[in-house]
Amino acid sequence: MEKIVFDDPETEENTEFFVVEETQLGGVRYLLVTEEEEGDCEAYILKEVREADGEVFFEMVTEETELASVGKVFAELMEDVDVEY
User: Fold this and answer.
1) Per residue in 35-44, is it b (16+ CB within 10 Å) or e — as a string?
2) Are the beta carbons of 70 and 45 closer than 8 angstroms?
3) Which tens digit of pLDDT belongs to each residue from 13-53?
4) pTM for this entry
5) Domain limits of the chain?
6) Closest C-alpha to 46, from 26, 65, 23, 27
């Protein structure tokens, strides 16, 4: 399973996440990630952001409408997993 490192700009802490699934919605790439490789655990949705200078980074999706929309897509993609948001 692919791993990515998320740098939290507020706390300046690094967290490794496992990429469980990815999708593209409205031209935006989203990742469903977890801190644990297997088992029941919390999952997070990250959104790819491209800056004008071409730099690419991911940020946590926190806006409720966007989170619900993307969460439904991930729930459909992962039929055997119970996704709650």
Assistant:
1) eeeeeeeebb
2) yes
3) 888 899 999 999 999 999 999 988 887 888 899 999 988 88
4) 0.82
5) 3-77
6) 23
